[in-house]
Amino acid sequence: MPYLSINTLKAEYNEIALLKGLAQNDSKAVEALYKSHFSTIQHFIENNNGSFDDARDIFQEAMIALYEKVQNESFTLTCQIRTYLFSICKHLWLKRLQQIGKYSSPLSAQEESVSVEVDMESHEKKDAAYAIMDRALNSLGEPCKSLLEGYYLNKKGMQELAADFGYTNSDNAKNQKYKCLMRLKKLFFAQYNIGD
Amino acid sequence: MRNITLEIKRNRMNQMDDIQLLEAIEKYLAGEMTASEVVQFESVRKATPEIDQMVVEHSMFLHEMKLFADRKNFSKLSEQTFNTLFETGHWAPIDEQPFMFKVVQMWDKYKKVTAIAASVGGFIALFTSLLIVYLSPSLNGSQVLQLNKAIESIKKNQQVQGHILNEVKTKLPENAKVLSGGSGFLIDTKGYIITNAHVLKGNGAIVINSIGQELNASIVYTDKASDLALLKIIDSDYKQPKLIPYSIRKNATDLGEEIYTLGYPRNDNDIVYGKGYLSATSGFEGDSNAYQIQIGANPGYSGAPIFNNDAEIIGIINTRQKQAEGVTFAIKSSKIYALIDAAEKEATSDNKIKIAKNNIIKQVDRKKQISNLKNFIFNIRSYN
Q1: Structurally, how many domains does chain B consist of?
Q2: Does the domain made of A119-191 have the CATH classification 3.40.50.300?
Q3: Does residue B216 sit in the same domain as residue B265?
Q4: Domain check: are B235 and B286 in the same one?
Q5: Does B57 touch chain A (CB under 8 A)?
Q6: B194, B211, B207: which is closest to B374 by C-alpha?
Q7: What is the pLDDT of residues A25-73, one digit of tens each?
């Protein structure tokens, strides 16, 4: 019976609240996660052939993976956030070391970890799709890139965009957005594997 | 939107109205249609496989776009959070080992370069420590002992390295005597360097970059009143950088502003980072051309640049004046502009000096700033 004590329950409740905050882009939750867990990762990476910058990059990626996991409303917390973040970072760092051919002996770590293979597989798929979208957007050129980013990333309305980009009315902006969007979709689907 | 589905049917073959179709699909997928519009739209969708296909494809695209946007926005938030915490002193990547430890460490790092200046270095180190003992009667015994130990280790290294001394190539002319040294920094990619006038006691100068490469330099202009001097690297080995990553501030800066410096305070070639803050907007005895700063500065810091958090140069360290512990004076960066004006008036060639003004590392974290900046800061030796 692992969750008998009130303190354990309380801690678990706090963790769930934190993850809910994270899912909603609450900067306080993000800050709390950095404050409680970054230094553990920093020590782990620096003790295993990595630099401070490596630790920052790896932790950032782990935060993204956690963020995307909690976007799914049915996500379950099977271990402490600390353990989960550490496990992701360990996985990512091991992979990085293997990529640059620096991996020699098992990583030294005092933290316990859980298996994150399944989560990491879905994270990698998302990574690939993200990269395709990023490339597609970047090869669009201007003003298409900024126009679509304004609409889809910054959630600006057509009227606001018309003003930003100097179109005489929102219909002109709409026309332009349509043309850009068609080009973007063509670029995106040329690389995106629908069957997957 | 009035009866949009009819329009879709009517205009399906007309490319011009694809915009409206897409708009309808986006509205449908976003759940912004009224109940009756949905019914109409879905019946059209069922009857037209092309439209159904478009809906499926666009839904997939919008889903990916949402993931993309969410990740991008979250990455930004996460990065900003990290940077704010980092700037407010959480976590320290920069190696801030105690002074004595570094003194020992430096001998391993730059044995060859230190060998060149070993004899001079030993002398100046000894002189400095005597000066410190003289100026600070309250200094306790163990500290003095530590300093003496350092000098002992310097002496030993000199003995060990004695035989290397002759093999190391130096750009100092034969029989040249090094008279003084300090730090300096690049202000124009053509090789113009600013340092203190008192750093240049001899007629000639060489500069050494952060990786230990020596370069010949000529003294272009000195102004004893402001204690600033301009050097120019004249050496075929000099690789002109494309861009200087910092700018030089023209106007005054605020009290309490956090600052840092990079220089060569010891007579080796180990660049040293020090941080502090601006403690008075005037210098020694109210000198309005100077700042008082709180930073651990040794004599070799003379001529070293002082950066603010945005990696903008706000002053030049000047340790000529007598100092209390931790109190140092700095020449205001605006004096650099005055010096260049004066130098150009006297110059025989009309080769204009372009003072660095593109600050490209403003947003970068401190550690990266430093690793970038150190390539533009030189160890300077003047000889006769």
Answers
A1: 3
A2: no
A3: yes
A4: yes
A5: yes
A6: B211
A7: 888 899 989 988 998 888 888 888 888 888 999 999 999 999 988 888 7
User: Closest-CA residue in chain A for B365?
Assistant: A53
| Total residue length of chain B | 384
Residue of A nearest to B67 (CA): A130
Looking at the structure, tell me whether residues B338 and B298 fall in a common domain: yes
- Provide the strand spans (E) within chain A: none
- ipTM of this complex prediction, to 2 decimal places: 0.87
Residues from chain B contacting residue A27 (CB–CB below 8 Å): 77, 81
CA distances from B234 to A196, B202, B211, B213, B305 (A): 62, 17, 18, 14, 22
Parallel/antiparallel/unpaired status of strands B204-208 and B305-308: unpaired
Tell whether B68 is within 8 A of chain A (Cβ).
Answer: yes
Q: Do A60 and B18 touch (CB under 8 A)?
A: no
Measured between beta carbons, which residues in chain B are less than 8 angstroms from residue A53?
Answer: 93, 367-368
Give me the domain span that covers residue B364.
177-384
Q: What are residue B222's phi and psi, to 5 degrees? A: -130, 145
- Chain B residues whose CB is inside 8 A of the A42 CB are 91
pLDDT lower than 70: segments of chain B = 1-16, 91-169, 266-268, 285, 296-300, 319-327, 348-350
> Do B266 and B341 sit in the same domain of this protein?
yes
The domains of chain A are located at 6-115, 119-191
Helix (H) or strand (E) holding B115: helix B111-135
CATH of A6-115, one of 3.40.630.30, 1.20.120.450, 3.10.20.810, 1.10.1740.10: 1.10.1740.10
